[in-house]
Write a structure and sequence with these properties.
Length: 406
């Protein structure tokens, strides 16, 4: 491909290439206009413009290479920033760049990336005002151009996205939200939430890219679905489906989108409801489930409240104990502190005994101690810390506190 020419590819018109050239004429280096999936929609083609291998590969492949985790962080920073962002180079051969998000209101559409030419910065190394204005104005014009090329179906999806976000936050009356979402009066509703599994040392895909891919996926498999994002979660509202069908669609979405991003995802789906005013409660239910299922790899990929009830309940009890420390049993606090100071194992012994439902032999085996040793520790725990382990309610409250402190 001759990089000095600006072809019309994949429906991108010559206007966007002309805009890239106009920005490059001010900033001095090669300019690329990208969508949210980092596809290169247009690029500048001015003679002699500075260009590095990363830009050249992006143009030739029509896709920016996704080689570095730090690069994904840069995209997140650019899409979150209100103005121009100067990004650090990630390799010895990479040229310095400035970038700006393309937005229509609060709707992200893509990004503009410009390699900085010699005249783009002042003697202090700051981006000169003319270059910054060229990027900001170029992003605004690119947004208008990209919106013109969006189909009416895509614009309808965006309207439904806004309507669902408002409904999740109880931002409008239920009747108005129902009209905006195109739902019948007493539709049977279910909410799905999708979020990346939290993995230490592994960066999750940017939410904006996950949301865009999820919107395309649901448009293909269930055209009536409404999709939106909030926090780190993609929400999908489905109507007139039984729980088995909702679970099946959630499993399909986790498998498909997980492969797309090579990232493990978790999905949670709510109970059914026929009143749109219940949507904030359905969201809370989904959020509760995702809170525990995204925390560890042993959690189910797709779950409803029944699948995760115990962990959800324990999470709420932990919240309450953190909010009101006075609810903690003082004997448990004293026992944990004694173990820490004296290197004893009373808390572990009581926990093992409670986990074994009072079976001393089983608990002793788990602890790798003699049953008589465990009996001694339990007796001393009663004496030293005032734990009445013969009372069922005390056993339950002690187990909860010990279970949540480990």
């Amino acid at each position: 491909m001759d990089l000095a020419k600006s072809p019309i590819v994949d429906g991108t018109s010559e206007e966007l290439f002309a805009l890239a050239n106009a920005i490059a004429a001010v900033v001095g280096g090669s300019v690329a206009v990208e969508d949210l999936d980092r596809r290169v929609l247009a690029y500048s083609a001015l003679p002699g413009q500075p260009m590095d291998d990363l830009r050249r590969r992006g143009i030739l492949e029509r896709q920016v290479p996704d080689d570095e985790p730090e690069q994904r962080g840069q995209y997140r920073e650019v899409l979150a920033a209100p103005g121009v962002v100067r990004v650090p180079t990630l390799g010895a051969d990479e040229m310095p760049r400035s970038a700006v998000a393309i937005r229509a209101g609060d709707l992200p559409l893509g990004t503009v990336w410009a390699i900085e030419g010699p005249a783009a910065t002042d003697p202090g190394g700051r981006l000169v005002p003319a270059a910054e204005r060229a990027l900001l104005d170029g992003a605004r014009l690119a947004a208008l151009h990209m919106l013109r090329r969006r189909s009416s179906a895509e614009l309808d999806l965006h309207a439904r996205e806004d309507a669902l976000r408002d409904a999740l936050n109880a931002g409008r009356p239920a009747a108005e939200a129902r009209y905006r979402l195109g739902l019948p009066a007493r539709a049977r509703l279910a909410l799905i939430g999708l979020a990346p599994l939290r993995v230490a040392g592994r960066e999750a895909p940017p939410l904006v890219r996950l949301a865009a891919a999820a919107a395309r996926h649901w448009a293909a498999v269930h055209a009536d679905a409404a999709v939106t994002t909030a926090g780190r979660t993609v929400y999908v509202l489905l109507a007139e489906l039984d729980p088995a069908a909702v679970r099946r669609l959630a499993e399909q979405a986790v498998a498909t989108l997980g492969r797309t991003f090579d990232t493990p995802l978790r999905a949670a789906f709510s109970r059914s409801a026929d009143d749109l005013a219940e949507l904030p409660d359905l969201r809370s239910e989904v959020d509760d489930i995702l809170r525990v299922t995204t925390a560890g790899p042993d959690s189910p990929e797709v779950a409803d409240l029944g699948d995760a009830h115990a962990r959800v309940l324990l999470a709420h009890v932990a919240d309450e104990l953190a909010r009101l420390p006075r609810l903690r049993h003082p004997g448990i606090e004293a026992m944990v502190a004694h173990d820490r100071a004296q290197q004893t194992a009373y808390a572990a012994s009581v926990t093992a005994w409670l986990d074994a439902v009072g079976n001393v032999a089983q608990a002793a085996e788990r602890l790798a101690v003699h049953p008589n040793t465990l009996k001694y520790r339990l007796r001393r725990a009663r004496e030293l810390f005032g734990l009445d382990l013969d009372a069922p309610d005390v056993r339950l409250s002690c187990w909860l506190q010990l279970r949540l402190s480990t």
